[in-house]
Amino acid sequence: MTEENFFDKKMSRREFLKKAGIGGAGLALGASAASAFFGQATEEARDSFDGDEEIPFYGKHQAGITTPVQKHVYLCILDLASTDKTSIQELFKDWTSYIAKMVEGELVKETEANSFRPPHDTGETVGIKPHRLTVTVGVAGTFLDKLGMSDKKPAALKDLPAFPRDQLREEFTGGDIIIQACSDDAQVSFHAVRNLVRKGRNLVTMKWSQAGFLAIGGRNQTPRNLFGFKDGTVQPDKKDYDNQLWVTDEGWLKGGSYFIIRKIAMYLETWDRTSLHEQEATFGRYKESGAPFGKKNEFDEVDLNLKDENGDPLIPVDSHVRLARESGAQILRRAYSYSDGLDSKTGQFNTGLLFLCFQKDPEQFVTIQKNLGSADKLNEYISHIGSGVFAAFPGVKKGGYLGQKLFE
Ligand code: HEM
């Protein structure tokens, strides 16, 4: 089948797979090789091999917040190019229907049988399953201002205060809309953002974007960041989500969450010259096991009162974990690593952490970041270079659309 014929057929990605009678791997291997391969594989192994698992789009909350982290994120921050509220509302309706399809492994829209027009879907995920794709959308305070809805702006949806060691760059800071596309396949995540942005041509422009990755040893294992430490161990308890994570006040954001992003450069060459002892003291956790100092296992309770043989605090007073914990605040963290070639000035890796976190109130982040302040030993190895505060919409009911309560 030629490429043109392929798109001309009114066929969803899933239908295509069904017709082909094989999974994504089969397309690459050829049908007979695939049959031989799957002949030996169990049903379970087949699913995890070809990314069959779907995360439901509809629900009380948006997916991609409490969803167990996927391997890849493609994050895109957009600015409004139009201040026409009705056009943007229509765009959000279209985005909703696109996302609902993409998370099920479908093309964004059936393509007309007219090969003289560009296909509706850009096509790079044809033959690829959903890979747990989630797409999470939020808007900044500036979005409401530009569309004449400042009266609906919650007091909490405002810029973060300046923190002492900030090195924020304008190009990575602010923006009106955020799209977070997480999945277990980098191209599936990219495709999702690309097709949404394409639909919004003339209405939105891209401000900045960043791809991020994680190595996941197993579904319930904590990934390691580029400093080699398990990152994401301590999270708010599920029972506390209404106190820590979800907005519960009546209004358009009820069931949503505040989404804060920080692009944080990590200086690997300095870190890699640091002794293991110093590295572990920076966090107050052991590198290999991820256990807090004085304990054996990753999920053992952090005990800030433990003392070493000299009577000094075992978890150092300037360690990241102690300072974060002593703030008393909690946030849900979903951090991804990034690696973008080399820094042209230093000739070193251009790497860092795409620090993504969700909370009921941005004050939670502010409280922690203030307590980390200038004291955090981690500061020797990092710089915050990008920032943004967004309101991640509540989930969508079937027949509804993202941001419906804000627009209507
Ligand atoms: C490049 C920057 C950062 C790195 C490499 C990093 C790494 C880590 C690591 C390895 C842990 C211990 C394991 C865990 O519980 O996940 C941790 C804990 C934590 N981090 Fe970070 N972090 C960074 C930035 C931040 C920022 C900006 C915040 C918030 C303002 C933050 C808040 C926390 C919190 C709340 C904990 C849990 C503390 C507890 O045990 O109660 N981190 N971080």
UniProtKB/TrEMBL annotation:
Please identify the protein, giving its name as recorded.
Deferrochelatase
What are the names of the required cofactors? heme b
Q: What gene does this protein come from?
A: efeB
Subcellular localization: Cell envelope
Report the cofactor remark: Binds 1 heme b (iron(II)-protoporphyrin IX) group non-covalently per subunit.
Its Enzyme Commission number? 1.11.1.-
Keywords assigned by UniProt?
Answer: Heme, Iron, Lyase, Metal-binding, Oxidoreductase, Peroxidase, Signal
**Function text:** Involved in the recovery of exogenous heme iron. Extracts iron from heme while preserving the protoporphyrin ring intact.
